[in-house]
Amino acid sequence: MFCPRCASEQSDDLRFCKSCGANLHAVRQALTPREPDQAFDWSKTWVADMFLSPAERKLRQEELERQRGITPDVKRRVEIKAGVITTSVGIGVAVFLYFLMQGIILSGKAQPGVEEILSRVWIAGIIPMLVGIALIINGVLVSKKSRPETFKDSSSQPLSDTTELPHSGFSVTEGTTEHLGRPEQGERQ
User: Which of 45, 116, 159, 170 is 20 to 30 Å from 33 by CA-CA measure?
Assistant: First the structure.
C-alpha cells in the first residue's frame, strides 16, 4: 500500500506509516467496500486526521512515538548527535572557506579592497558550528533536566522493572523465525 500523505510504500499490515505516521488503517477502511446498510464513519478516515486540533494532533504524535519506542532519552541522544554533526559541518565549512579564500588571495588576481573581505569569508562556517554547539548544550543540559526521572539513584530502591512497560507493537525480530517451525523429536537442535 502507498501512503497517501508521503507516497512511500508500506506493508499491508501496518496501522501507521513508518515515514510520516499517517493512519493507514483508516485509509484501508475508507477504501474497503462496505455493506450497503452500513453507515460510513468519517471519523475513521484520514480526512478526519486533517481536522484534528493541535492538542489532539500532539496526543496522536506522542502515541505514535510511544508505539515506535521513541523515548525522551532517545530524542535527547538524537539531538546531541545532530549537534555533533552540525558542529563538524560548521568547522569543515570554515576550514574549506579559509583555504579556498587564501588560495584566491595568494593567486594575486584579487583586488586590494576585496582581499580584506575574502580573508574573512571563513567566518561563515562559525554559524553552523554555533548552532551545533547550541544543540549539544540543549541535549546535554536542558533536555536532561526537563525529562522525568524514571529510575531511582539510591541503592535502597531497586530500578524499575522493564516488564511493566507497555508493548509497543513494533519488533525487529518478530516473525523472523516462524517459518522454521518446531524441531521433530528425533532431530537435533
Answer: 170
